[in-house]
Fold each of these.
Amino acid sequence: MHVRLVIADCQVDYAGRLSAHLPMAKRLIIVKADGSVSVHADDRAYKPLNWMSAPCRLTITEPDADSAELGVTQLWEVRSREGDTLQIRLGEVHLDSDHTFGVDPGLQKDGVEAHLQTLLAEHPSTFGDGWQLVKREYYTPIGPVDLLLRDHNGGHVAVEVKRRGEIDGVEQLTRYLDLMNRDPQLAPVQGVFAAQQIKPQAATLAADRGISCRVIDYDLLRGMDNADERLF
Amino acid sequence: MHVRLVIADCQVDYAGRLSAHLPMAKRLIIVKADGSVSVHADDRAYKPLNWMSAPCRLTITEPDADSAELGVTQLWEVRSREGDTLQIRLGEVHLDSDHTFGVDPGLQKDGVEAHLQTLLAEHPSTFGDGWQLVKREYYTPIGPVDLLLRDHNGGHVAVEVKRRGEIDGVEQLTRYLDLMNRDPQLAPVQGVFAAQQIKPQAATLAADRGISCRVIDYDLLRGMDNADERLF
DNA sequence: GTGTACATATCGCAT
DNA sequence: ATGCGATGTGTACAC
């Protein structure tokens, strides 16, 4: 269990879902404890130029005489189970450093769509007075509807929740509505597209499909949630 | 222009599109020449636990007396233009290494969808005898159709090309067809969904929409292309 | 294992 | 800048 950092001149060839080639240049190579290998340039945030995800196997060999003559010092071959290969020819090595980490305590996240969905499930009145939750993650054969509600008249409403409301969210909800409206137990089902922010094109498409849009104030909703907790 | 590698015990807090917290543990921190910062554990291939993409600004300060007492040696704050912040509190530093890279010659790719599209544009007879190319990347107000063809009867055909044919590709083509069929210059327009592999659910949806599916043999097509070249 | 949706998605291109 | 589509997307979760 360790992380190996290598900075070296290297030439890289990937063959798998596509073919890619990197000419010889100085780069950073990271080998992680899970076996994954990534080759980084000095830009592009965290995205490597080339990589192999775990599970995979790294084999390091000596270069043949011809390659050695041309300055190749090590030959790395990384191979995945599916047969994808990443070949790295190392030239001059500027750093080769090995480090052992402990088990990472892991990441704590907040504010993602799941939380938004939870809050809205707990406060269906956000959508209208007297509206009630039927089911979170209501399963249809083509995927889960985020929220199934009943409005003040008892009519079904399918809600699609997004952080940012874009066109494919509307498409998604449209597919669900088409399907649900064929079910006599549910029909007629209205659609509501709920998001912290809704792009104009998504709003236009929603309107065209008879779907109503709701912009959600996440902080306000979280505030309501806290207020509720204080009452108990 | 340099890459800085730090291995250190650190505690991380991110506030931006979401909030996230990492308890103190030994990790790898990479600062790239573009200013981007990423914090890695020893697993998850190339994805960091936390990061900040360029453009952003890194400020390093001394910890206050209280923090220093608790073992904090450096306080890093990374701030983006949008106000997202990444705070890193460093404890013991195990490695701090700085390296200058040259300009990377860059990645050469082959085999992606673009190539598939090019090959199909050059060989419209793949779809049927006598079929001809009208336009690659035919622009509609809602996006470009990959290929616009005419079949042996002169009727228009819109082709959506994918490496892997999934449900959203069918949705995309459906939107284009709806729009194009409102244009009396083009209507009636048939739809063809072409991919190296088509998922059953996508095929079902396509059939339901009256769109025909074509599974493309990339190697065969590339072979045809090479054969053509040899003729000249 | 397949299917589906989410992601601080990232990235590139075209308008 | 914004919209839109592709990605060797990766990842989690339900069936």
Amino acid sequence: MSISVFIVDDHYMVIEGIRSLLQYEKSIELIGHAMSGSSCLAFLKNRLPNVILMDINLPDVSGIDLCKEVKEKYPSVFIIGLSTFNQKSFVQRMMDNGASGYVLKNASADELLESVQAVVKGKTYMSFEAARSLKSGSDNKFVVTRREKQVLELIAEGMTNIDVAKKLGISATTVDTHRRNLLFKFSAKNTAELVKLAMLNKIIGD
Amino acid sequence: MSISVFIVDDHYMVIEGIRSLLQYEKSIELIGHAMSGSSCLAFLKNRLPNVILMDINLPDVSGIDLCKEVKEKYPSVFIIGLSTFNQKSFVQRMMDNGASGYVLKNASADELLESVQAVVKGKTYMSFEAARSLKSGSDNKFVVTRREKQVLELIAEGMTNIDVAKKLGISATTVDTHRRNLLFKFSAKNTAELVKLAMLNKIIGD
DNA sequence: TGGGAAATCCCTTAAAAAGGGGATATCATT
DNA sequence: AATGATATCCCCTTTTTAAGGGATTTCCCA
């Protein structure tokens, strides 16, 4: 019995690349692709693959969130995170949300194939690089809470503590506390560095 | 005579995707690929393609800089920018540095083929989306001077005006002036927004 | 159900940035 | 030779942030 695979990625070239890498593999059947989180969920209503190769950067929702949603609705589906980024926090959060594997986009055909075959057996598969960044003792892991992330986004838009406070309907001192905690978590000397680090680590978006 | 094409992209899946999209096209011959700017330059010493498909995000240098360097050394090569980003400043700078075209990574096989065939005829090819963002009246093009860029980078590293002043061997008031000018140029309300915009537009690096 | 993290709120002081007004020297390009 | 952009320097005031010290509630998870 062949393994059915579904691809979620917003870049046509990547979809085509995966298709090309896997096409000669008889044990794998590509049953389709989606270029957004919503169209992925729409597809899954009709048909469930064994494995989903899921980009973590999607136009509508993050792959990290999508992973969680899919896993809640369809626990039997195995999800492999797919990304150009090799940062501990991403890998970590993807795995926390139920992914069975994580493969970098510069992976070879062998690696991709191996990952698919591993996860359907219930195993966990990690790109070598991804595994390394997971194990790496260094705490590249910037964990921010929902509220902190909101504050961070507004700060990066040029808002002062007072602006953010009004926007969120809370006190300015509370915003300040969040800001401090963020500075501490990122080991940032000031807001400028904080914003830089947050963007580098894709905590806040484009 | 067939068109020789060389690919520069650090993601194996994208390379494979392009290969797959172009493989049945007899008029095009893929002569190789590189996954970094340096290996691209190394390749070009031995053989020149007609067209280079060049990602703007590379591990060692930005595609924007690489484009300039390649065009200076080998003016006869046509370069097509390749990116997931559809921002005016990127497209603009890529074209300023001698690119003949700009194609988004979610382009179809037809679009990709069309772009290659257009540029070898000396034409300019733009993805519809890329062309649209170029035409969009808003001047997203942030021009900063060398000194301003230096100041910006140091600020984003968490330095205060005084720190930057010491580092660059100039007065703190001068740094402050640069900072003001930067705020004005970016229409940023404060440093946080300035850093965000600078990173979004790749004025300062990762 | 109890502990811990998250989120909320407050005070104070010093440092830094924002914003206003300027000025001068240099250097390239016209 | 003149113009304009770049880079340098200085004054001032107000606003905002940084950093120090606290506190209370809410809510999730073990």
